Amino acid sequence: MGILQALSLYDDLDKGPRRKEAPEYPRGGRNRVEPRPQRSKGEALRDPIVITSPHYNRYSAGNVDVTLLFREFERIASVEVRDFSLNAARRGDYDIIHVHWPEWLPRREKTPWLAALSAMWVLNSLAAAQKRGTKLVWDANNTMPHEPVFRELTDKFMMRFAAMSDLFVSCNASLGDEFIAKFPVLISKKRRLLGNRNYVGVYAHETESSENARRLLGLPTDEPIALAFGSARHYKNLPGMIDTFARYRQRTNRACTLLVAGGVTDSALEREIRQAGERDPRGIRLDLHFVPESDVALYFRAASLALIGTVQAVKSSVAGLALSLGTPVWVPRRGAAIDDADEIDEPMLNTYDGGITEAIIHRALDMSENVRHHIPPALRDGRIGESWSAYAQRMLDEYRSVLSSRNDGR
Fold it and tell me: pTM for the full model?
């Protein structure tokens, strides 16, 4: 097998056996979408703008921010959302490739040379797309790649991806600063601060009383509940958080519950989490399954507070969810939380340094007992968060701006 044949195996981004490329369907029909002709400088912008994201799948759950943003795009007549494939990217079928997690573009391989081939194929495909006029947009989420198999290779891939980006978007300056410190090449790139989004009005049960939410979820009604929400990943340090919470309960004999809610796909991690929970089955509730959209708000309304327990969190969708649903949240003081804390005071947004400790758990539980669930004024009046429809329009303006630089020869 030649190297080009080997590289072509990495067209698919799933982790399973190679599958045929998914057909690309236009909205309103199932006719095959013809490849767009190669664009030239000076050519006027065309509608609809064709956009894609490797992290959006309209048929299944994914990252909440990408899902909500692209759902709004699909409602805009001047935008056409297509499914992502590397072959389509190489043909120049897209105007915009919107990337949330660059480190997840190469496939997760078990050997270094296969991982290197996958990374090479992705970068080569993105470069081919750019030669045909496609613009690469990086929507900042995390500076440290989550769960890389080969750290050095992943770091090199991320550096190269940063150098290729046409537009870098972050929610605020403190988050942007973290990325620039990690990837100095971004200083020379087009950068935009587009602010936060909120989740007000997105989920059912967002005004459910705490008592009803707890009853529906089968939770205690007479003690504080700390919530660790979201897909279980190694970097989130859930076993460590569970162990710390259990030690705190045993030392203080305090009536309180840690509720861990979210799906887990790594069987070894699931065993580790369950073993940690067995230390205190009375105080640890494990809902290790995917939480459907219909139940998301119930978990936050039932909780006294939400905990983000990893120091790697530079931007947390869970924090935004908690605040939008009126639940106090504790998050590491870094990245986006630094600027957000200037607008949202304690006890709704609380920051801490280092990892989760018993002292932090004690403070969080104490403060939560005196807090009424409410949406912070800064979110309610739009100072640090806006609707997803408004955010999608502003992102679309940035797409048009970066595409216009292609057409006027810059």
Answer: 0.81
